[in-house]
Amino acid sequence: MPSGNRAFYLLLILFVIDVGYSFIQHYQMPLDGDLGPIVLPSEAYKKVLNDPFGLQVLLENKIYPAPNRYFAHQLVSGYFKTVPFLLQTCVSPVKSVYLSCAIAKIIIQVLLILVLSSYICCVNLKKERIILCCVLLSPLFQASHGNYNSMGVIDESVVYTFFYALPIGLLLIFLFPFYKFYITGKAPQMTWLKTTIWFMLVVILSFNGVLIPGIVLVGFPIILISYFAGKHRETGSILSAAKNADRKLLFLFLFFILTSLYSIYIGRNNLENFNNKLSIGDRFSRIPSGLYEIFIENKGLSSLIGIVLVNLFILFKTRIIDSVPQIKNVLLLLSLFILFYILLLPFGGFRDYRPNILRNDTLLPVILIVFFTFGLSTYLIFTSRIKYHVLYGAFISTVLITYSILDTPLEARNWSERMAFKTIDESPLDCVPIKDSCTVFSWTLIDDCAETAEEGKMLKYWGITKKEKTFYHDLDKTE
To answer: Where in the sequence is the domain holding 474, given as residue range(s)?
Structure first.
């Protein structure tokens, strides 16, 4: 077997091992409190599923939960009404639900790794280079331990993973042809079929929550200004630049901006926004605390940024960066995006479970940019074979091993929840006391059976219980 093939298969094995371990970690996560109401769905969430584009907000100024998240809710509901039952042909109902969560998370994780890897080596998309990038990026995806709080991409909550990580992955797929065009000069073929698919993706992403519209409204103006500035240098005037631009491409981007503006507009009537009010000034005042928590208290992301800076120093010192001159502009545009994105985050609202505005979920675009920059800079150095490349390879290997080790502890965090499901099913009571301090299909401990009616229906629907039952935490009786 040629040495190149041996290297490919070795890297592939390392990647599969890391992904497999992540799958086991995802499988051990408990269910979150949003899953039942969204899958069922609850009466409150039925409104968004009956009004995909928020027309009740536009025409009647109605206020209800998640008016601009139709596709996110539809996907979560459809997935968990289908996949667990497919799995129940070979596993128990309880296992089928946890397996469904783990499968969804690992697919989204691999999707993000492959897409980022394609961005990194878009000039030469050979399998050997793709798998090298995958191995560079995979250890950075922390499942629940180590540096999860500062750089976790795949959320412990499966609903948050569907709402945050997945749409960003789809947005990256949408942008890839244009990024490749910028780097290689090969324009994407804007056939009517591709254009139609892109337009459909725009609609899906625009009504998938607030994250993507926010990214679009911050990032797309930066992209368009950079695009016209480059055309202006070629043609001599902004008017000529506009005339020479690809009309389909520009219309697609402008359409995305408009649908994002509309999504943000109807999102103002999200009922959840009215539960946690905090002035804009107070939100901005909490940004420093959020930055301190993400970058100082948790060293994972800041350490990675430090390594990126070292890589960039090497790239500029050795002039490797000159081999792909567009990369300098990409890094500049990404830096501008990070700055404006963080400054505009306070306008996105406030949640009491996210007291400092900044958290790994709201900072997900920034985290993925850091991952991309680390992967890109490391890839360029590796493929250029600089002096002392063996020493550099040992350094990067140590970094990746360290991130992997920090995230290695296995903890069956859903074991108590599984036992609670068994207790609920076997109890002769319709309102079952749970004498364990673990959360059960919820975010917090629950002291009233009336609060778990929807969860009880969902457990019966999945076949975890034989009949609909409610439950509550009765911790006083354990003392």
So the answer is: 415-478
